[in-house]
Design a protein that fits this description.
The protein is an alpha+beta fold. The protein has 3 domains: 7-30 and 74-222, Phosphoenolpyruvate Carboxykinase, domain 1, CATH 3.40.449; 227-295 and 387-587, Phosphoenolpyruvate Carboxykinase, domain 3 (Alpha-Beta Complex); 299-379, Phosphoenolpyruvate Carboxykinase, domain 2 (Beta Complex), CATH 2.170.8. 29% of the residues lie in helices and 22% in strands. The strands form 6 sheets. Strands 11, 12, 13, 14, 15, 16, 24, 25 and 28 form a 9-stranded mixed beta sheet that branches. Strands 1, 4, 5, 6, 7, 8, 9 and 10 form an 8-stranded mixed beta sheet that branches. Helix 2 (32-45) crosses helix 5, helix 12 packs antiparallel against helix 13 (457-470) and helix 12 (417-425) packs across helix 17 (573-587). The protein starts with 6 loop residues before the first helix and ends with a helix. The structure holds guanosine-5'-triphosphate, sulfopyruvate and manganese (II) ion (MN).
Length: 588
């Protein structure tokens, strides 16, 4: 049954059905009843495996194709009319050419299958921040995952009304052929097309495709920002809650920081942390001249490996019901799941992420390094009371960070907004399993948006500079690095909950409560101002990881200069100047 009279939507659904030729079309109304039917159907085909109802109520295991386990950046395209609008960091093809290519691949791709029509909202339905989309898909996994990650169903169609203002998304698993896999964005048509994949980041179109790539282009036009950022509320012993956003590249610690549990010494004094978002932030200028943030998502698509009762108990708790696990170990003894880093007791009778009998003593990994959980946000014990807020939360600090074994210090503060934009623009990080390709290679990932910026990165930096000029009370901008290693390759900073020790200094700086020392990079804490109560870290270690190695940084400047060169005229002059200034300070 069609759930709307909206002619724009009906016409488009008809056209896409004529192209993909499904056997039938099912509109998703958002009811638990309909979702339960779909889960049952997916269990029949093996697409979902029902897990132990007592230990993991409402939870399922899903396995993606073995060649389809991460985002495919080399097959992700931004098809604006002009190549220069996509810029040097995006793959580009002429839209007409790309449509032609895709129409051939989508032709008949849903034959014998059902096309599901999923109306979804990014943001609280009816709020000023909210944007709507419709995803057409031939995958039940996508439907039930979108039901966790976004707000779906009839209420979204009601909110769209007769409007043509929604993002079109077409997805088909087709044959899961990696050679014909394409994740394509047409920002000028508000259209996304994804084919031949079933992996979350490629197919849950509300997430990276809409809420970052398309939304970043909308934000530029409409004076707001769509960022790859967590949103965390930190409550101090006085009961004040201050909010930070953090942009770290994929698999570099956003979910962990967003859900952090304060160290015991902090908890005793009354510190608490509240999760607003763990991956994406939409930011708008408030009437007070501050930046306000909402999380447009409704769930967490989190990295499973490394998530444990010790590292991230809140994330683990969030996965205890109504969660879908993808590509983790199946414990056959009690029909539960496991992954590396959960605990030290891998199951003896188990199947690995590929569904093969797995011997945990043979040295092979049981879970894929990019295996994930899809958990409802409401499950998280520390979900912020502001999670459903229509106006969002005011941001005091923006924190950039990445994985750098050397170079980047534990923390430093930028001199002002524009210098902070420079600090974000020069971010670099070791690649992770979140995308296909080599892992552990340092690459530039400005603002953690390299894979997600829907337009020319040079224009994007200019947009950041312009936004700063419009904010009478902008957040302060910082850079952190939890991943500095010693000569043996061990992390020098304990990370996880102990990161609050750094965040405390950051927030203290925002409210004029903490001192700093000026370095070539910006402002750094006095080592003794990082609270080490109750943690096994010496002041010498802190001094070491706060250090600025001038030689390394002069090398870094060369790398930045080369990186910047590809943007030509699009590189904002202010950023070129910041680079010259940094180099001059280092040479002095
Ligand atoms: P995406 O969902 O891909 O965007 O990743 P994310 O940025 O949310 O990363 P996440 O918090 O899931 O962490 C990814 C990996 O980094 C996990 O293996 C964590 O255990 C590890 N990690 C997170 N925080 C820290 C930290 O403070 N120190 C160290 N050493 N590792 C960390
Ligand atoms: C990331 O890679 O940054 C993720 C997972 O958050 S995905 O949805 O696959 O992009
Ligand atoms: Mn992410």
């Amino acid at each position: 049954m069609k759930l709307t009279d909206n002619v724009h939507i009906l016409k488009w659904v008809d056209e896409m059905a004529a192209l993909t030729k499904p056997e039938k079309i099912v509109w998703i109304d958002g009811s638990e009843e309909q979702l339960e039917q779909l889960r049952a159907e997916a269990m029949g085909t093996g697409e979902l495996i029902k897990l132990n109802e007592e230990k993991l109520p409402g939870c399922y295991l899903h396995r993606s194709d073995v060649n389809d386990v991460a985002r495919v950046e080399d097959r992700t395209f931004i098809c604006s009319k002009r190549q220069e609008d996509a810029g040097p960091t995006n793959n580009w093809m002429d839209p007409q050419e790309m449509y032609k290519k895709l129409y051939e691949i989508f032709d008949g791709s849903m034959k014998g299958r059902t096309m599901y029509v999923i109306p979804y909202s990014m943001g609280v339905v009816g709020s000023d921040f909210a944007k709507y989309g419709i995803e057409l898909t031939d995958s039940i996994y996508v439907v039930v995952s979108m039901a966790i990650m976004t707000r779906i169903g009839t209420k979204v169609l009601d909110a769209i009304g007769d409007n043509a203002d929604y993002i079109k998304g077409l997805h088909s698993k087709a044959q899961l052929d990696p050679e014909k896999r394409y994740i394509v964005h047409f920002p000028e048509d508000n259209t996304i097309m994804s084919v031949n994949s079933g992996y979350g980041g490629n197919v849950l179109l509300g997430k990276k495709c809409f809420a970052l790539r398309i939304a970043s282009t909308l934000g530029r036009k409409e004076d707001w920002m769509a960022e790859h950022m967590l949103i965390l509320g930190v409550e101090n012993p006085q009961g004040e809650i201050r909010y930070v956003c953090g942009a770290f590249p994929s698999a570099c610690g956003k979910t962990n920081l967003a859900m952090l549990i304060p160290p015991e010494a902090y908890r005793e004094k009354g510190w608490k942390c509240w999760t607003v978002g763990d991956d994406i932030a939409w930011l708008r200028i408030g009437p007070d001249g501050r930046l306000w943030a909402v999380n447009p998502e409704n769930g967490f698509f989190g990295v499973a490996p490394g998530t444990s009762a010790k590292s991230n108990p809140n994330a683990l708790a969030a996965t205890k019901k109504n969660t879908i696990f993808t590509n983790v170990v199946h414990n056959l003894d009690d029909n539960t799941v496991w992954w590396e880093g959960m605990d030290k007791n891998p199951p003896k009778n188990a199947e690995n992420w590929k569904g093969e009998k797995w011997d945990c003593t043979d040295g092979s990994k049981g879970a894929h390094p990019n295996s994930r959980f899809t958990a409802p946000a409401v499950n998280c014990p520390c979900i912020s009371p502001e999670f459903e807020s229509k106006t969002g939360v005011p941001i005091s600090a923006i924190i950039f960070g990445g994985r750098r074994a050397k170079t980047a210090p534990l923390v430093y503060q930028s001199r002002d907004w524009n210098h902070g934009v420079f600090v974000g623009s020069i971010m670099a990080s070791e690649t992770t399993a979140a995308a296909t390709g080599k892992v552990g290679v340092v690459r530039r990932d400005p603002m953690a948006m390299r894979p997600f910026c829907g337009y020319n990165m040079g224009d994007y930096w200019q947009h950041w500079l312009d936004m700063g000029a419009k904010l009478s009370n902008p957040p302060k901008i910082f850079n952190v690095n939890w991943f500095r290693t010693d000569d043996e390759g061990n992390f020098e900073w304990p990370g996880f909950g102990d990161n609050l020790r750094v965040v405390e200094w950051i927030l203290g700086r925002c409210f004029g409560e903490k001192d700093a020392v000026e370095t070539e990079l910006g402002y750094e804490p006095k080592p003794e101002d990082i609270n080490l109560e109750g943690v096994d870290v010496t002041l010498d270690t802190v001094k070491d990881i706060l250090g600025v190695d001038k030689e390394l940084w002069l090398e870094e400047c060369k790398g930045i200069r080369e990186y910047y060169a590809q943007f030509g005229d699009k590189l904002p002059k202010k950023l070129a100047q910041e680079l010259d200034d940094l180099e001059a300070r280092l040479k002095k």
